[in-house]
């Protein structure tokens, strides 16, 4: 069954790792990307917003190619597509913009043909592209996701984010490609550091699942990626070390960075103190950053009706 009228999909941003859960833990966040996909006579793209400038508008486009993978898997042919895309998720900043495009493409294509593939299958396909399941898992399923990937299959557990949790992100004005932030990591680790991380990642997962916000500070510590990435994000080391003394429950590098993330109790009266501390510390290192308060997003990729306006405004075409 092909929906000739097309489908419109909304996909949340995501943060990966949450400190110790390297390539494992992810959380969906309330910034969104939209993809509209329709069968067409010839393939055409409409890209809205500066974030998408430069993305290919031919069949080499990743969204187009992933849609074709879904159709091939389902044994359906939809060779020509009209694809519209818009995104509020800043690119190459550690907020899962590429994961949102991958998930959006697979989910939209599957919906377009009546959803023959399971969510688990889409998760396997998304992880095969991204190579780690943390961002794509959160974007696909929403909430907090703990996931493992064996190279073929991704298995996940979804955790409903505690209602008292809010997220402050500091998005530096510079780009940091994930590849660069992965290249800097060591090939091997000491048993001491591995035990340090396994214990924190386990405690953090349990703390988030059971709403024990008091355990987050002890759990949100990492020795296997953040220390190596610190030189790439001036000011990060101090922010991660001192955020809890300025009102955060815990702080981490968001994914491969450069965005920094603090978990904060919703009714905290120290929000401005934390904002000022982060802004001041980055400023002392010559880094300009945009601070945003975000919500953990319970819903993952979903189909939205034509009535739910996507930011597809003619003036924004790139
Ligand atoms: N877990 C990944 C990393 C997320 O930290 O490199 C980035 O996509």
Automatic annotation (TrEMBL):
GO molecular function (one): ATP binding
EC number annotated for this UniProt entry: 2.7.1.39
One GO cellular component term: cytoplasm
Presence of keyword Metal-binding: no
Family assignment from sequence similarity: Belongs to the GHMP kinase family. Homoserine kinase subfamily.
Cited function: Catalyzes the ATP-dependent phosphorylation of L-homoserine to L-homoserine phosphate.
This protein's name: Homoserine kinase
Source species: Paenibacillus yonginensis
Gene name of this polypeptide: thrB
């Amino acid at each position: 069954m092909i929906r000739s009228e097309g489908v419109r999909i909304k996909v949340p941003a995501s943060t990966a790792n949450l400190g110790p859960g390297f390539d494992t833990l992810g959380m969906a966040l309330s910034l969104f990307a939209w993809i509209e996909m329709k069968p067409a006579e010839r393939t055409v793209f409409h890209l809205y917003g500066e974030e998408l400038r430069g993305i290919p508008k031919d069949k080499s486009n990743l969204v187009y190619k992933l849609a074709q993978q879904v159709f091939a898997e389902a044994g359906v042919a939809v060779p020509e597509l009209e694809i519209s895309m818009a995104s509020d998720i800043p690119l190459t900043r550690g907020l899962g913009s590429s994961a949102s495009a991958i998930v959006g493409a697979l989910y939209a294509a599957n919906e377009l043909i009546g959803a023959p593939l399971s969510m688990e299958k889409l998760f396997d396909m998304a992880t095969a592209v991204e190579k780690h399941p943390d961002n794509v898992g959160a974007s696909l399923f929403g909430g907090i996701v703990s996931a493992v990937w064996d190279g073929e299959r991704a298995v996940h557990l979804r955790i409903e984010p505690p209602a008292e949790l809010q997220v402050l992100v500091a998005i530096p004005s510079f780009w940091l490609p994930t590849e660069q932030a992965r290249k800097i990591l060591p090939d091997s680790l000491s048993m001491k550091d591995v035990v340090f991380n396994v214990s924190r990642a386990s405690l953090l997962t349990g703390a988030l699942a059971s709403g024990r916000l008091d355990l987050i500070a002890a759990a949100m510590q990492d020795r296997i990626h953040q220390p190596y990435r610190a030189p790439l994000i001036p000011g990060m080391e101090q922010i991660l070390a001192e955020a809890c003394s300025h009102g955060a429950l815990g702080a981490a590098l968001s994914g491969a960075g450069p965005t920094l993330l603090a978990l904060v109790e919703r009714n905290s009266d120290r929000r401005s103190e934390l904002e000022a501390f982060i802004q001041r510390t980055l400023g002392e290192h010559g880094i300009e950053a945009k601070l945003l308060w975000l919500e953990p997003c319970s819903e993952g990729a979903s189909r939205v009706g034509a009535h739910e306006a996507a930011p597809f405004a003619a003036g924004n075409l790139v």
